[in-house]
Design a protein that fits this description.
The protein is an alpha+beta fold and 169 residues long. The relative contact order is 0.07. A hairpin with a 5-residue loop joins strand 6 and strand 7. Strands 1-3-2 form a three-stranded antiparallel beta sheet. A two-stranded antiparallel sheet has the order 4-5. It has a two-stranded antiparallel sheet with strand order 6-7. The C terminus is likely disordered. This is Winged helix-turn-helix transcriptional regulator.
């Protein structure tokens, strides 16, 4: 398959299939759960103990999502008290190879990415005491508009008051 054909796979249905899967496996806990279950069947409390920082609630939600997606199987044993075990399904086991490849890529390229982030952050702060020395608008991650004006979804430019700005001409 050519590189072009591979790129078309990603873009194919507007990226919905790929985004849906990446949303699942790219969340904070999924790959840790999958890696922890690799080659083992485990009870909830053992998973909780082996995955540092995960709360009971987040582990429960992650396991439910993985079970729903067919990546994890859940077995309830009729005992008192009930014993529940989790393991990767055949489909879940196929995720190990790509997950390891992604982890290896991340480890290999993390120093370069960190250096790029530092250079970018430094270039954004150079010569801008408050980040607005040029008078341009700034969309920040806090969802607020900072600066002279912003563009809203209504297609109009709005000043700091939130009212449409007077046409310039």
């Amino acid at each position: 398959m050519s590189q072009y054909e591979k790129a078309c796979l990603i873009r194919g249905d507007g990226g919905r299939a790929v985004r849906g899967i990446l949303d699942r496996v790219g969340d904070k806990w999924t790959l840790l759960v999958v890696a922890t279950l690799h080659g083992e069947r485990m009870r909830f409390t053992e998973l909780l103990r082996r995955i540092p920082g995960v709360s009971q609630r987040m582990l429960t939600l992650t396991l439910r999502h993985l079970e729903r997606d067919g990546l994890v199987g859940r077995t309830v044993h009729a005992e008192v008290p009930p014993r529940v075990e989790y393991e990767l399904t055949a489909t879940g086991r196929t995720l190990i190879g790509p997950a390891v490849a992604l982890a290896e890529w991340a480890i290999a390229h993390n120093p370069d990415i960190e250096r790029s982030r530092e250079r970018y952050d430094d270039s954004q702060s150079d010569g801008q005491s408050d980040g607005q020395s040029d008078g341009q608008s700034d969309s920040r991650s806090d969802g607020q508009s900072h600066g002279q004006s912003d563009s809203r979804s209504d297609g109009q430019s709005h000043g700091q008051s939130g009212e449409p700005a007077a046409p310039q001409g």
